[in-house]
Design goal:
Its EC number is 3.5.4.2. GO terms for molecular function: adenine deaminase activity; zinc ion binding. It is an enzyme of class 3 (hydrolase). It catalyses: adenine + H2O + H(+) = hypoxanthine + NH4(+). It is built from 17 helices and eight strands. The chain is an alpha/beta fold. It has a single domain, classed as TIM Barrel. It has an eight-stranded parallel beta sheet with strand order 1-2-3-4-5-6-7-8. The structure holds hypoxanthine and zinc ion (ZN).
Length: 334
């Protein structure tokens, strides 16, 4: 199974670039930017990565991102992730970035996007990886701040495919961002949102009905509301599920109780993703392996998950066709 998972070409649809910041690179960039970080060794960093909830993690995640200053820092961050894509056979990825994590610290929007864009072009040339960008609004900040971010993004509109919503979910429901999502859609951005990770099923309803999302990030808690499950199936919305993230943030007690198989059995188009792999202990193959082993997923389940990720990506129809042919080829050779 491990070899099968690794041999399959994959798409990743839920990945925060700031969450792919490995401690080694964090130390290197902190040093060259002469920024103090509260850890002396990589071991100390790894020990700090014990989370009891989403907010615990977010505090450390934002602190880590604080060492990113220059365009090259963002370039290096993204190239390190693309290298992992190459190693994990991820041939298409849709990368979330949080502009406000940086603009709030006085880093220009253009510094962030230019670094990411240069890496995207180099990764395409070096490894043939296709990628799209999802600009995510931080939901613990105001809608006004999200509007400011939308405005800053407009000169770079052609580089950005989609808008998302992340950060502290509880107390920050999708409705808070109704107007900015409406405006973002008018600008041509495809809406997605984190919903039902820690927050209730009601937040997933809001993401669908009010933000008009094309995909739901996480969405695990939809299983608490059968009508919602039916709605997700009817609207043909995919869920970007993140097994190791769910385990590390205690949304799942043990992997054997992870809801992925239940979601598939209910007819929901689930996909597997790594979310913040530097913090949660693994990239795409590790996520597939962990959940396959715990839930005893079959080869057919794995193929379904992989095909879902291509089918529900924002790639063009031609790209999707070619990706799915590659999957079929590996399946028949294996
Ligand atoms: N959930 C919410 N916000 C986030 C996450 C997450 O898993 N990762 C980075 N920002
Ligand atoms: Zn996420």
């Amino acid at each position: 199974m491990k070899d099968f998972i690794s041999a399959l070409p994959k798409a990743e649809l839920h990945l925060h670039i700031e969450g792919s910041f490995e401690p080694e690179l964090m130390f290197e960039i902190a040093q060259r930017n002469q920024i103090e970080i509260p850890y002396k060794t990589i071991d100390e960093v790894k020990k700090a990565y014990q989370f009891s909830c989403l907010q615990d993690f977010l505090d450390i995640y934002y602190a880590g991102a604080g060492v990113l200053i220059h365009e090259k820092d963002f370039y290096d961050l993204a190239m390190a992730y693309y290298q992992k894509c190459y190693e994990n056979n991820v041939i298409h990825t849709e990368i979330m970035f949080d502009p406000q994590t940086h603009t709030e610290r006085g880093i220009a929007f253009e510094t962030v996007i230019n670094g990411l864009q240069k890496a995207r072009l180099d990764a395409k040339e070096k490894w043939g990886i296709n990628s799209l960008f999802i600009m995510s609004y931080l939901r613990h900040l105001s809608e006004e701040s999200a509007f400011e971010t939308l405005k800053q993004s407009l000169p770079y509109k052609d580089l950005i495919t989609s808008v998302g919503l992340d950060s502290s979910e509880m107390g920050n429901p999708p409705t808070k961002f109704k107007n900015v999502f409406e405006a973002s859609i008018k600008e041509g951005y495809i809406p997605v949102a984190h919903a039902g990770e820690e927050g209730p099923a009601e937040y997933i309803w809001e993401a669908i009905d009010i933000l008009k999302v094309a995909r739901i990030d996480h969405g695990n808690r939809c299983l608490e509301d059968e009508n919602l499950v039916q709605e997700i199936v009817k609207k043909d919305l995919a869920l970007t599920v993140c097994p190791l993230s769910n385990l590390e943030l205690r949304n799942t007690d043990v992997m054997t109780k992870h809801p992925l198989k239940k979601l598939l059995d209910k007819g929901i188009k689930a996909t597997v993703n790594s979310d913040d792999p530097a913090y949660f202990g693994g990239y795409m193959n590790a996520n597939f392996e962990a959940v396959q082993e715990a839930l005893k997923l079959s080869k057919e389940d794995i193929i379904t998950l992989v095909k879902n990720s291509f089918n529900y990506s924002f790639a063009t129809d031609d790209q999707k066709k070619s990706y799915l042919e590659k999957v079929d080829q590996i399946v028949s050779d294996f």
